[in-house]
Design brief:
Blueprint: E1 8-13, H1 21-31, E2 39-44, H2 46-49, H3 56-72, E3 80-84, H4 90-99, H5 104-108, H6 111-119, H7 126-140, E4 146-148, H8 154-171, E5 179-181, H9 216-224, H10 241-254, H11 258-264, H12 270-296, H13 299-328
Parallel strand pairs: 1-2, 2-3, 4-5
Helix pairs in contact: 3-12, 4-7, 4-13, 7-8, 9-12, 10-12
Length: 333
Amino acid sequence: MENQRKPIVFSGIQPSGRLTIGNYLGAINNWIPMEETHDCIYSIVDAHAITVRQEPKALREATLRLLATYIAAGLDPKKNIMFIQSHVPQHFELAWILNCYTMFGELSRMTQFKDKSSKNADNINAGLFTYPVLMASDILLYQTDDVPVGGDQKQHVELARDIANRFNGLYSDTFKLPNPVIGKKSAKIMSLQEPDKKMSKSDKNEKSIILLTDTDDQIIKKFKSAVTDSLGQVKYCDEQPGIKNLITIYSIATGKTIEEIELEFEGKGYGDFKMAVGTAVADMLRPVRTKTDELLKNKDYLEEVYKEGAERAARIAQRTLDKVQRKIGFIHR
């Protein structure tokens, strides 16, 4: 009996700024179970990061730290392909081709372009406008079946599907149409100080974000100062956005259901609840932080991982690129 091919999953995180608990809970933590059910390809998308000005040394350090975090969080380099995006030039070759099959109006409607433009008014560059095409290239190169994303990234996967459909319609089936997968644990992690806004690693208010590099004491202190309300009850409802956010985080950190959490803190004050959340998150992140720091001391091992990952990724990517170039009329080199 012929072995059935595992579906392919692709995802990536930018090595810009500092990783927050939102990146961990919303992405990396959800990838781990997939290594048994999918062929997994995970990139550190450094090319996407430079749409905003980066300090070169900091970008290199952040790239290695992110790779170390992938491994420390539990991703096995033998079971998953992990690579640095800029090490696989096929991403950029395909991106240029797909730029020619993407409509200006489609890119103009991308909500993240509008958001990033407003935040970087002095640097609204062409890359900021066209980076969704590079993202489509990232996904389509690997004939990806599933793309785990947060709700705010779903639009980019839908654009990748539109581009693939357009290309397939012109040149026959070439790309697989990827599906956005929003996992049960991919709920948005909101700011601790402004719970109506998503937690962002670029937030200037340190009290708003939990960083993967934060110590236990820093984590607990930040949760103690988290914004709540005057209702005095631990209930998961839209009228209590701060408490709702803390319940979401506590649920993921402990594996408890919302109902169990509400029952656990019935009749208890917010002080007890925030302390419990802080302790649970500190316990969850401590081994990841410790392992990451250990891996960063072994640069030779990290180099081995990203070089092998890039070689494996490039072999897959080149098969797709060859097919695309042949179909549009490029002469094989």
